[in-house]
Amino acid sequence: MAQFRRLSDTMLASPQISVADVSDALAQGVTLIINNRPEGESDDQVPGPQIEAAARAAGIDYVAIPITHSGFSAPQVDAMAEALARASGQVLGYCRSGTRSTLLWALAQAKAGESPDAIAAAAADAGYDVSPIRGAMDALAGAAH
User: What is the residue extent of each domain of the chain?
Assistant: First the structure.
């Protein structure tokens, strides 16, 4: 079972989930699962279409916003912000470790004008470090004001 870590009142991050984890997500009020892993990243990952099928069968929305080793782009941040804005309940983002999901959430929150300090504190409370993207968070938050 994957460990869901709380980033905010509405956002959870997790390492790779399994099909069985989808029912746990539903029990925790998750209405949207966001997959931040590119397909074929590792031999042991559950393919996104399997997670998507399980999510949809459980009545949970699903979106894939893959983040590769090349980093984050504006379209990915925009896609995350749009997905979060459309969600009507808890959102679960996952990748290999939960870090990329957390970083993408942090960038989307900063773009929405949330305080980078508050975002960094929430991520740290969940066990994630956003310092690699702190400059981008500050720039996005500054542009939002």
Answer: 5-144
